[in-house]
């Protein structure tokens, strides 16, 4: 079976399933949730489930994979195979192990041991050697010599692995199961960010099924859900604005957001609270800033996030529009160029909203798909206007891109044409102020704040 994006519909019923199904992705939280959804589809009402933790004996896992159940015609074996597939980033595993260890909690210890085992497996090192010597070798290989003593501390406490052979035994059993096919046993396995070139991963993609769980081009809603759920599990309260600040400071990057979220939860402790200033203090701000993320915040009428992004866009950091880097002019010119981009987006939103309002009741809905927009709404927007004989969205550079109009229409949906017209009418005054030495941050923040407020 080929690789597929994860969805419940992509998961076959048990009798139609291959013998090995791998759910993978970059963020453990979403991989685990996807696997739980896949399990519901596979298990139905009658299936024996054997779930193995990371420290389970390899021989027990192999037996479960290769022997038929005595109690059910259907058996599902669930386990994480990140360590079995390996990783191409042992340095990241070392950081994960040490950060988890420093939490000083039982959950942190378990996370540290899991990452430490994966680290040793990735470097093909024994877990039973002298902790100090093994730690020195690891630290040298990943170029983190200063962390050798802390890693040795983790390795001294690392529980002895049950059984012999470890990952090699599990790999062999999975290969045998793949060759044998589904004769009543299906392995539902997970892996976080496995390297693409691993032989076993390619074999699963060829003979089994690989379901990749991503969170799309607009990850913010899913990241907010993850933060709220993880906080609820740890009995931590995120005060208003804290999650938004974490999104801003991590640039909405899912892997970095997840990593910094875990640090904040560990910092707060069970029953603690996280405020927006706490996020500022504990999360290093390294990300470049996306201009489109500001447009989206304006479209949601989210003043807190929009104003934070204005500040970042004026902070001297790298700026991009999606994946496209933007060249920034000299410091005294950039605010003027930046404002022209904001005003251009407001103009586009105004034209779209006005066009939809003047052509009668609109069937546009901000949640509609891009294809529905193209077929049902776009023709009305780009229709020629009398007496000019061309679309108002045409310019000297040609017609506007349909997807840009779709996103602008989504952003405009929360505004009236009158609100957008008021904002656009102020643009010339703001432009003049910026050209006469008005403070850029205060001037642009005031403009965006008034735009969102609709005044």
Structural notes for this entry:
The longest helix is centred in the C-terminal third of the chain and has 25 residues, at 334-358. Helix 2 (58-66) runs parallel beside helix 8 (167-180) and helix 11 runs parallel beside helix 13. The protein folds into four domains: 4-84 and 165-213, P-loop containing nucleotide triphosphate hydrolases (Rossmann fold), CATH 3.40.50.300; 90-157, no CATH class; 220-287, Helicase, Ruva Protein, domain 3 (Orthogonal Bundle); 325-453, Zinc Finger, Delta Prime, domain 3 (Up-down Bundle). It has a six-stranded parallel β-sheet, sandwiched between helices. Strands 9-10-11 form a three-stranded mixed β-sheet. The chain has a two-stranded parallel sheet with strand order 7-8. It has helices spanning 28-43, 58-66, 82-85, 90-102, 106-122, 131-141, 148-157, 167-180, 199-207, 220-233, 242-249, 254-268, 276-282, 291-299, 303-313, 334-358, 370-376, 378-382, 402-412, 417-425, 427-434, 440-453; strands at residues 4-5, 20-25, 48-51, 75-80, 185-192, 209-213, 237-238, 273-274, 289-290, 319-321, 324-326. It is built from 22 helices and eleven strands. It has 455 residues and is of the alpha/beta class.
């Amino acid at each position: 079976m080929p690789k597929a994006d994860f969805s419940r519909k992509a998961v076959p019923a048990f009798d139609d399933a291959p013998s090995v199904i791998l759910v993978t992705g970059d963020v453990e939280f979403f991989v685990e949730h996807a696997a739980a959804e896949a399990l519901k589809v596979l298990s139905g009402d009658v299936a024996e489930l054997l779930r193995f933790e990371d420290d389970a004996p390899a021989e027990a896992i192999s037996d479960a994979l290769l022997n038929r159940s005595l109690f059910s015609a259907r058996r599902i074996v669930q386990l994480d195979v990140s360590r079995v597939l390996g990783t191409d980033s042992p340095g990241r595993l070392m950081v994960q192990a040490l950060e988890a260890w420093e939490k000083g909690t039982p959950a942190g210890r378990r996370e540290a041991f899991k990452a430490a085992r994966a680290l040793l497996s990735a470097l093909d090192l024994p877990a039973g050697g002298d902790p100090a010597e093994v730690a020195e070798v690891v630290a040298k290989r990943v170029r983190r010599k200063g962390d050798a003593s802390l890693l040795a501390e983790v390795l001294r406490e690392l529980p002895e692995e049950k059984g012999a052979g470890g990952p090699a035994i599990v790999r062999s059993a999975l290969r045998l199961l793949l060759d044998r096919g589904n004769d009543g046993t299906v392995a539902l396995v997970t892996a976080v960010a496995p390297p693409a070139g691993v032989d076993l991963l390619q074999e699963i993609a060829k003979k089994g099924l690989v379901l990749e769980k991503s969170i799309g081009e607009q990850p913010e809603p899913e990241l907010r859900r993850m933060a709220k759920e993880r906080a609820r599990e740890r009995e931590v309260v995120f005060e208003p604005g804290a999650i938004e600040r974490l999104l801003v400071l991590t640039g909405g990057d899912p892997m970095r957001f997840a990593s910094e979220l875990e640090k904040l939860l560990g910092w707060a402790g069970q029953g603690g609270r996280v405020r927006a200033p706490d996020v500022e203090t504990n999360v290093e701000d390294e990300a470049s800033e996306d201009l489109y993320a500001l447009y989206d915040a304006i479209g949601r009428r989210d003043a807190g996030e929009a104003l934070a992004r204005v500040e970042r866009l004026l902070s001297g950091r790298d700026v991009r529009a999606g994946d496209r880097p933007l060249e920034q002019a000299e410091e005294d010119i950039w605010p003027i160029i930046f404002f022209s981009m904001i005003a251009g987006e407001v103009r586009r939103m105004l034209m779209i909203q006005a066009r939809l309002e003047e052509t009668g009741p609109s069937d546009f809905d901000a949640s509609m798909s891009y294809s529905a927009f193209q077929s049902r709404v776009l023709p009305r927007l780009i229709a020629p206007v009398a007496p000019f004989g061309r679309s108002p969205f045409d310019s000297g550079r040609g017609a506007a891109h349909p997807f840009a109009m779709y996103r602008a229409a989504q952003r405009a949906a929360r505004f009236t044409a009158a609100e957008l017209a008021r904002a656009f009418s102020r643009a010339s005054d703001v432009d003049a102020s910026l050209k006469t030495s008005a403070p850029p941050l205060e001037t642009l923040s005031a403009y965006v704040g008034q735009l969102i407020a609709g005044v």
